[in-house]
Design goal:
The model has no long low-confidence stretch (mean pLDDT 94). Helix 4 links the parallel strand 4 and strand 5. The protein has a seven-stranded parallel beta sheet with strand order 3-2-1-4-5-6-7, sandwiched between helices. It has eight helices and seven strands. It has one domain: 3-Layer(aba) Sandwich (Rossmann fold), CATH 3.40.50.720. With 266 residues, the protein is α/β, with parallel strands linked by helices. The structure holds NADP nicotinamide-adenine-dinucleotide phosphate. NADP nicotinamide-adenine-dinucleotide phosphate binds next to helix 1 and strand 5.
Length: 266
C-alpha cells in the first residue's frame, strides 16, 4: 500500500526555475520564508539579484537559459556544491504561444517544447543522483489545466503541457520506489507575466477575468508538497475546469470554443 511522505520544508535544499517572476518568484519567497535554501534561476539577472538580496544566506542564483543542456548541468553542479546535496527540484519556468496552428511555425513548436517539456524533464533527470541521497526528496512540475483538456489556438502549449503531465504520471511510480516524490501542479489562470512573455501571438480573451494570485498558487503548491500529494490544482477555477473536462468534455468544448472566438479585451 502507498503511504504519503509528509515533508518539513525547513532546511530543504533545492533548485527553483522560473524564479524571476510570477509563480516561481512567489515560490522562492514562500520557501525561503519557511527556511528552505534554494538556487534560483531565470534569464533576467537583475530580477534574481533583487530576489536573492531579500533572503541573504538562503538564496543563491544562476542566470541563464534553461533550454541549454550545459546550463542545466551547471545548475545541478552549483546547487550540490553550494548546499552539499539536493532535496528538491521545482520546475516553474515556462512560456506560452497563441495562434492558429496553420499560421504557426516549426520553430515555435520546438521552442515551446524546449522550455515547457524538455527543460524540466531533463533537469530532473540530471538531478536524480543527488535527489536519491536527499532528505524527503521531491520534484515539482508546474503544468496547466490545458495539459488536461486542450484549447483551440494554443496547440503548442497544450501539447507540451500534456506531454509533461504524461511524463509525470509514467515516472511517478518509478521514482516513488526510490523514495523520490513527484508533484504535478495543474495551474488555472494565474496572475503573472505569462501573457507578456509569450513566444508567439497575443493574450487570449479567455484568460481575462480574475486569476489566482501567484502567492496563493505558491501556497497551495507548498501545502501539497508538505502533505506529500501527487497532484494539486490551485484555486476553484482550475478544479472546476478539470472536473468539467472529465465529466462533460463536450459541454466544455462548446463553452471554450465560444469564448475563444470572442474578440480580445484588455
Ligand atoms: N499564468 C498562468 O495563467 C499559467 C496557467 C497555467 C500554467 N502556468 C505555468 O506556470 C509556470 C510559471 O509561469 P508564470 O505564470 O509564473 O509566468 P511568468 O511570470 O512569465 O514566469 C515564467 C518564468 O519562466 C522563466 N523562463 C521562461 N523561459 C525561460 C528560459 N528559456 N530559460 C530560463 N527561464 C525561463 C522566466 O524567466 P526569464 O524570463 O527571466 O528567463 C520566468 O521566471 C509556467 O510553467 C506556466 O506554463 C501559468
Amino acid at each position: 500500500m502507498f503511504c504519503r511522505v509528509s515533508r518539513n520544508l525547513t532546511g530543504l535544499r533545492g533548485i527553483l526555475t522560473g524564479a524571476s517572476s510570477g509563480v516561481g518568484r512567489a515560490l522562492a519567497r514562500a520557501l525561503a520564508t519557511r527556511g528552505a535554501r534554494l538556487l534560483v534561476t531565470g534569464r533576467r539577472e537583475q530580477r534574481l539579484t533583487d530576489l536573492v538580496a531579500e533572503f541573504p544566506g538562503q538564496l543563491s542564483m544562476a542566470a541563464g537559459d534553461l533550454t541549454q543542456a550545459v546550463f542545466r548541468q551547471q545548475l545541478v553542479a552549483q546547487a550540490t556544491a553550494t548546499y552539499g546535496g539536493l532535496d528538491l527540484v521545482l520546475a516553474a519556468a515556462g512560456s506560452g504561444a497563441v495562434g492558429p496552428f496553420a499560421e504557426s511555425t516549426p520553430v515555435t513548436l520546438r521552442e515551446i517544447f524546449e522550455i515547457d517539456f524538455f527543460a524540466p524533464v531533463e533537469l530532473v533527470r540530471l538531478a536524480l543522483p543527488a535527489l536519491r541521497e536527499g532528505r524527503t526528496p521531491a520534484a515539482v512540475f508546474v503544468g496547466s489545466i490545458l495539459g488536461e483538456h486542450a484549447l483551440p489556438l494554443h496547440a503548442e502549449y497544450c501539447a507540451a503541457k500534456a506531454a509533461l503531465h504524461g511524463f509525470v504520471q509514467a515516472v511517478r511510480p518509478e521514482l516513488r520506489a526510490e523514495g523520490i516524490g513527484l508533484l504535478l501542479a495543474m495551474l488555472g489562470p494565474t496572475e503573472s507575466e505569462f501573457w507578456d512573455n509569450l513566444l508567439a501571438g497575443e493574450r487570449a480573451s479567455w484568460s481575462q477575468g480574475q486569476p489566482l494570485s501567484a502567492e496563493a498558487t505558491a501556497a497551495a503548491i507548498l501545502r501539497a508538497l508538505e502533505q506529500g500529494r501527487s497532484v494539486v490544482q490551485p484555486g476553484w477555477r482550475a478544479r472546476s475546469f478539470t472536473t468539467l473536462a472529465r465529466l462533460w468534455p463536450g459541454l466544455l468544448d462548446r463553452a471554450i470554443t465560444r469564448k475563444v472566438r470572442e474578440p480580445h479585451r484588455s
